Amino acid sequence: MSERPPAPELSSGMVKPALWMGLRLAVSIVALLWVYYTIPVKDSADGDSDLPWLLLELLIFGAIVGVQVPLISRARYPVLRGLESLALTVLLFLLIFARVYLSNSASDPAVFTQVLDKDTALYFTTTVFATVGFGDIVAASNPMKLLVTLQMLLNLVVFGLVIRVITSAAQRGMARKKKDQN
Question: Using CA atoms, how far apart are residues 105 and 82, in angstroms rounded to an integer?
Fold first, then answer.
């Protein structure tokens, strides 16, 4: 049996940056959740579609990921920056879909098997993202089933592409740091 190399230890020089990253991450998470919970629910009973907003939000999400890549590779601690970026982009992705599901449920309570509030919309989005789908909340209309299907497909993109891009940026940053030290 081959032995695995020891896990990299957190050097004493990284403790302070790791604590700052944790603090920034906690503040950012609280801020994103605060925004999610305080923005009023859009009731699109007048027939307005959420699709344009969803597309705009997903474009903004892509732009945020795109901006993070060079920041990660140029960061002093690219792995920490990558972890922070990954956590925030996943949360933002979940909040985007939770808001869309919430406004659809508010405008038509029959699109899900139960009316969603802010908590259940975030719960439902997270169960779809985590691919567990407990079955307690289910999309009940065909358009909503298609939207949930879109989220499932985009989940694969987030799991595959976004994680890969952020990881690659962190690896490039580590290689750059190593080169600069030599």
Answer: 34
DSSP classification of residue 136: S
pTM of the predicted structure, to 2 decimals: 0.82
Identity (one letter) of the amino acid at 10?
Answer: L
Contact 17, 76 (CB under 8 A): yes
How many of the other CB atoms lie within 10 Å of CB of 75?
A: 23
| Per-domain residue ranges of the chain | 50-181
Domain 50-181 CATH assignment equals 3.30.470.10 = no
Instruction: Specify which residues 139 forms β-bridges with.
Output: 112
Task: Tell me the average confidence (pLDDT) per consecutive run of 10 residues in the chain, 182 residues long.
Answer: 52 80 92 90 64 81 87 89 90 92 91 95 94 90 93 90 87 86 79
Q: At 162, list the tokens.
A: 């976004």
Given the structure tokens 């700052």, which residue do they identify?
20
CB 166 within 8 A of CB 86: yes
Tokens of 157: 């993109």
